[in-house]
Amino acid sequence: MSEFKFACSNCGQNILSDTTQVGTSVTCPSCQTPLIVPNIPAGTSTAPPPSAPGLRRADSSSYNPPPPPNVTPVVEKTSGLAIASLVCSLSSFVICIGWLPGIICGHLAKAELRRNPKLKGSGLATAGLVIGYISLAFLILFCALLTPAFIKGFKRGLERGRQNRQPYIQGNN
């Protein structure tokens, strides 16, 4: 029984194991990630003694049975709110009010992504927020430019209405 070391795939901690543990499941002593002890590569010498700095012995009491061979891979999920934020913000170029749900969904998506780091979609949420705020800025600029022209036209219409008004004449019938 010879000893060898391998690194945890999650935290990089060096773990000291022996050849009897090859193929079995152990838990990393640092990050508690379940690992399968790998085979010893050919020509690899045995590991230094357990007292060497940076090495920790795998806890033999935390062995788990090996996982079944047909384990399905973990599919990373994308936040639905992040997708909704981007879609709504892009729709603001067609539907003028799309920026509002885009901004709201973007902020909700960012909060959801902070709470659940396994979710993906931070870039989608950021893009939705940026496009939503740009659309809002364009809408404000558009309204600011059109308001004086609208007021001027409204005043001109009132003046023409006053000039064209005819007095009401009652008939003697």
TrEMBL record:
Region (Disordered): 42-69
Statement: the UniProt record of this protein carries the keyword Phosphoprotein: no
Key words, A-Z: Membrane, Transmembrane, Transmembrane helix
All residue ranges annotated as the DUF4190 domain in the record: 81-142
Transmembrane segment boundaries: 81-104, 124-151
UniProt protein name: DUF4190 domain-containing protein
Organism the protein comes from: Pedosphaera parvula (strain Ellin514)
